[in-house]
Design goal:
Helix content is about 75%, strand content about 0%. With about 425 residues, it is mainly alpha-helical. It has one domain. α15 runs parallel beside α18. The protein starts with a helix and ends with a helix.
């Protein structure tokens, strides 16, 4: 790491106004798709270019420190290489399930999807499992099925490995790959088991209310067909590439080669069966370009003013990180509070050596930040990038999907919130 970059990050006091593009971008992501959906879909890429251009101009022209912008842009390239490669590989695997959508089978399905989230990333696992999930429950699909899929596969599934946002950003900053599973397995397990147990009893009630022909249809036998197994080979290549750190961008080059190999080796009928499209990846790419660049002054400010915020216990880090993750996007929120925790110890998030040193004494704090970002990302549609993608796909299949407020009032508050209290009380008080 260039010492000059560290000096800039640790010493330059960014103008508070230059943090406005970051706040405006996240507000746009949160609310414009709800109030100006058609305009947002048409012009979101212009918003994702205009707002970060203000931040870039400030660092390049006003304070003449281009290193900060270039460093974060490099992290953006690494982030999109992982997300994009997993998205394409997952899109080349088609899972067809017929019959036996009993409550027990659904719990097993959700658990396997949650585990897959730690391999494919939450975006890849969501794209791989959502359509089989809808088809398996087509005779009695409700908002319950959409919400618990988002809870488990699209969010909690990213809590054991840094294979997707937000934990991959921590990996890029210096958090070792195996650190997450070593220190977060207990809160992750509590969350998974609690949510699966709740889902089982609610889905069993839902199943018993279904008409007799529906129950007979769904217990008539199970058939699972998987196409595109050759993509497992490309997945293994990507997983191995994650551990490559030097030389620069060799990891990303290998991921690109694996992505191209997967895309062209996948039969067209598999892509058609999955309704594969680059549109979701395109949206994630543009929006995260804006997020990565506009959050530079926020990270610098959080490091310089860490002690002013009085967030000084693991529980506080869990709830503050989680609360902001629920109403914003959990990836930048995770980095913001990780920078705050390091700043309280007079360390820089831009120094991987400092990050690894902090993990020994601040393990519970970093675990609280990690779990807060991952778990609270499931609280709203805007908490994590796959959530809106799942909502859109469910609506395309004309199955019931809760509204934004319905999601929060009917599921997040009465179901997810008690689980979050349980996770914090049992595992994150140290």
């Amino acid at each position: 790491m260039n010492n000059w970059i560290l000096a800039v990050a640790a010493q330059i006091e960014p103008n508070r106004l230059i943090m406005l593009p970051f706040a405006l971008l996240l507000l746009c992501i949160a609310f414009l798709p709800l109030v100006l959906k058609l305009h947002w879909e048409r012009y979101y890429h212009l918003v994702a270019l205009f707002l970060p251009s203000i931040t870039a101009a400030y660092y390049l022209l006003a304070i003449r420190q281009p290193e900060r912008i270039l460093h974060e842009f490099a992290d953006y390239v690494r982030f999109m290489a992982l997300v994009g490669s997993l998205f394409v590989v997952a899109g080349g695997i088609h899972v067809q399930i017929r019959g036996e959508a009993t409550p027990l089978f659904n719990c097993v399905f959700l658990f396997l999807g949650t585990i897959a989230g730690n391999l494919f990333g939450t975006t890849g696992a969501s794209m791989l499992f959502i359509r089989p999930w809808i088809r398996a429950n087509k005779y009695r699909y409700t908002g319950l099925h959409t919400v618990f899929f988002i809870f488990l596969v699209s969010n909690v599934g990213g809590g054991l490995t840094p294979m997707g946002p937000p934990l991959f950003l921590g990996y890029l900053k210096g958090v070792p790959f195996r650190w997450v599973i070593q220190h977060c397995w207990l809160p992750w397990s509590v969350a998974v088991l609690s949510l699966l147990l709740i889902f089982y009893f609610v889905d069993r009630y839902n199943f018993r209310r279904a008409p007799r022909p529906v129950r007979d249809e769904e217990t008539a036998g199970r058939k699972i067909d998987i196409k595109g197994q050759r993509n497992i080979f490309f997945l293994v290549i990507i997983l191995c590439a994650v551990f490559i750190r030097h030389p620069s961008f060799l990891r990303e080059a290998i991921m690109l080669v694996a992505t191209l190999g997967s895309y062209f080796a996948t039969p067209k009928d598999v892509h058609l069966a999955n309704e594969f499209s680059f549109a979701p990846l395109k949206e994630v790419g543009w929006l995260f370009l804006g997020i990565f660049l506009t959050m530079v002054p926020v990270l610098d400010y959080m490091q310089l003013h860490a002690r002013d915020l009085a967030i000084d216990t693991p529980a506080k880090f869990f709830w503050f990180t989680g609360g902001f993750s629920a109403i914003l996007d959990n990836a930048p929120t995770y980095l913001t509070f990780l920078a705050n925790a390091l700043g309280r110890a007079n360390l820089s998030i831009e120094d991987p050596t400092a990050v690894r040193a902090f993990l020994s004494d601040g393990a519970v704090v970093v675990a609280a930040i990690s779990m807060g970002a991952v778990l609270f990302g499931a609280a709203t549609y805007i908490g994590n990038s796959p959530n809106f993608m799942i909502k859109s796909i469910a609506e395309q299949h004309k199955v019931h999907t809760p509204s934004f407020l319905g999601f929060v009032l009917k599921f997040s508050l009465p179901v997810l919130l008690p689980v979050l209290f349980l996770v914090c009380w049992l595992t994150l008080r140290g």
